Each structure stands twice: as structure tokens, then as C-alpha cells.
Amino acid sequence: MKVSGSYTLDATRVEAWPHIFDPAELASLIPGCQRLEQVSPDEYHGTFMMWLSAISGAYETTVRVLEREEPERCRFQGDVTGPTGRVSGTASFCLADNDGQTLLTYEAQGILSGALARMSPRFVEGVAKTLINQGLDTLNRDLQAERAAATGSVQPASPANPWQRRYGCALSIFQSLLARIRSALRRSTSSSN
Predict the structure, then answer these.
(1) Which is it for the CA torsion 67, 23, 37, 62, positive or negative?
(2) For the chain, how many structural domains are there in total?
């Protein structure tokens, strides 16, 4: 499995970096996170819940930082184990300043085992990308609120509530799958005409 992408954060990389490594903040960025603790300067253990029928359940995770160049880049390895299997792999991200914002680029690759390995790679990659984007959306809202507080401007209330954090992933994945089905149906209809 391979996943990559980019995201623009409304803060400089110096402002964004500490949010990524603080355990309390990091826990708020992981959809369904129940527990996250820093067990050493470069290692985190946690539990998160997935509420998507095919992969529902509690997952235990361990993440170890392999390389870190503050505030530019980080490479880490992780292991996630749950009721439907295991994912082991490495990931990295880079932060680049861009006119008062930060372009975050990431890539990850993992080896799946158990029932996860028998699922469609597109489905698993779609779930991973959705979770990453939800976390980055939350990080960006936090950074926007922090910047607004520092400048004294009013920031609208965050739309993320516990219900959205719990079921938002499932809804996003469902919408993505529905769009793919529609696209496939359009292609099949246009090719038969």
C-alpha cells in the first residue's frame, strides 16, 4: 500500500511543527483516537477506534520517529494492529514555507496482513487518505484559531464535533466510493453507446 499527498496549512512551518509532536494535540488530530502517550522522546503508543463496518474496532498503534529535522521534515515507522489485521510501514512528511503558509507533503508505504490484506488496495488507500486529510483539516483549524487568537481577530467555531469526528470518516469514504461507482457507470454507459 502506498499513499501520498499534500496539504496547505494556514501557518508557517515553525508555527505548525510543535503541534505535530505534542501528544495531546496529536491525539486530537487522529480520528477516533482514544489514547495516545509519548513513551520516549521518539516513540508514541496509542489506541484508536474505527467505525467503518469492514474494519471496525479498536486498533493499537506504535510510532517511532526515525529522523527529525525541525521544522523541515520527519521520517517515522509505525505499526497498527487490530481486529482485521496489521499494517506495518514507514512514512515521511516535509514542511515548506509558502508565503506565510506551509505546504505539507507526505508519503507512506505499508505492508498489510490479515483481512486487511485481502481488501481492495484502493479501498484501504482511500481510508488511509481520508484519515490523513481529516487529521490535517483539524490541524489547520487549530492553527487558524491560534493565529486568530494571537492577532485578536474573531475565529468562527470549529465545525468538528464528536459526531463528525466519529462518523465523518465513514461518510467521506462512502462519498468517495459512491463517486467512483458513478464514474464507472458513466464510463460503461458511454462505451456502450
Answers:
(1) negative
(2) 1
